[in-house]
Specification:
It comes from Galactobacter valiniphilus. One of its GO terms (molecular function) is threonine efflux transmembrane transporter activity. Belongs to the EamA transporter family. Keywords: Membrane, Transmembrane, Transmembrane helix. InterPro entries: EamA_dom, EmrE-like. By secondary structure, the chain is mainly alpha-helical. The chain has one domain. The protein has 15 helices and no strands. Helix 6 runs antiparallel to helix 14. It is globular, with a radius of gyration of 19 Å. It starts with 6 loop residues before the first helix and ends in a 13-residue tail after the last helix.
């Protein structure tokens, strides 16, 4: 969750720099969550041929929702309309983001799909930009995308890019809703309800496959759900508790780098020099953009995100 607004900030003064210990601790939580997320994606990708990317995403959310609802047992009564708006909106963004990302991973390398997905938080931060330097950061991120797709041996699959950019749109919405839900009193209980909403929305694709999934496939789906949803969401929430949204949002730039490493190590997806340079450029530019823009609008940065 976002840090409380200080008297200095209310008076328009420059906000104090975050403590180094909190920054490093938040980075550790985000790194653990992002690493688990990438491993989860690798496991899930191995099921695409048998189940399909949309079906795998839905089944994974179904398992994660059951686990989180049992563990946190969120209350249903006593919530305002605004609370439910945040919970449902968060779940909608989560379901669409996961489905688009998995469909992209089915067509383009993991590192590139995750990099394009990271453009969502960048655009959200850019929407709050007020200075030229923030616009330059955005241009740097988009230049990185061009390096990935148009450089020597560029990885451009039109449908894969379309799914990845669709995922970025919903990741942008996710960052806004994550901030809203993260500030609510329900905590991880609200998160569990949002995952439940995402699971319900994906039932049309997951339900028809329940009877045909084999025991080994259920095992892989369970591991992917625990790592990529339950564990990652918990790590992101802990990061949001020890540092403000600007810090956490900046650390999410680890996703493209760790996604590329996971694709290389576990899926044999070697990247060209131009794609590697583009991923680094997107991650660095996006991190700087979220950091600078978040100094004035921390609520627009991811503070409890998941990929």
């Amino acid at each position: 969750m976002s840090a409380p607004v200080s008297e200095e900030r209310r008076e328009g003064a420059r906000p104090a720099a975050p403590q180094r210990g909190a920054v490093l601790k938040a980075g550790g939580f985000v790194a653990l969550g992002s690493s688990a997320l990438q491993v989860s994606s690798v496991i899930a990708a191995g099921l695409f041929a048998a189940l399909g990317p949309f079906e795998t995403s839905g089944l994974r959310l179904l398992i994660a929702a059951a686990l989180l609802l049992i563990v946190f047992r969120p209350r249903l009564r006593g919530r305002s309309r605004a609370d439910w708006f945040g919970i449902v909106g968060y779940g909608v963004a989560m379901a669409a983001m996961n489905a688009c990302l998995y469909a992209a991973i089915d067509r383009i390398p993991l590192g590139i799909a995750v990099t394009l997905d990271f453009l969502g938080p960048c655009v959200v931060a850019l929407a709050a930009a007020r200075h030229v330097r923030e616009a330059l950061c955005a241009l740097g991120a988009f230049a990185g995308v061009l390096l990935i797709s148009l450089g020597p041996g560029g990885y451009f699959d039109p449908l894969g890019y379309a799914f990845a950019l669709g995922g970025a749109v919903f990741f942008g919405l996710y960052t806004v809703m994550a901030s809203r839900v993260g500030k609510a009193d329900g905590g991880l209980g609200d998160l569990a309800l949002s995952v439940g909403v995402a699971a319900v929305l994906t039932l049309p694709v997951s339900l028809p496959h329940l009877a045909s999934v084999t025991a080994p496939q259920w095992g892989l789906l369970a591991v992917s759900a625990v790592l990529g949803v339950a564990f990652t969401f918990t790590m992101d929430t802990l990061a949001g508790r020890v540092a403000d949204a600007r810090v956490v949002g900046t650390w999410f730039a680890l996703d493209p780098v760790l996604g590329s490493l996971a694709g290389l190590l576990f899926m044999g997806q070697a990247l060209t020099w131009s794609a590697g340079a583009g991923i680094v450029l997107v991650a660095a530019s996006g991190a700087l953009l979220v950091w600078v823009a978040g100094r004035r609008t921390p609520s627009l940065s991811p503070d409890g995100a998941v990929h």
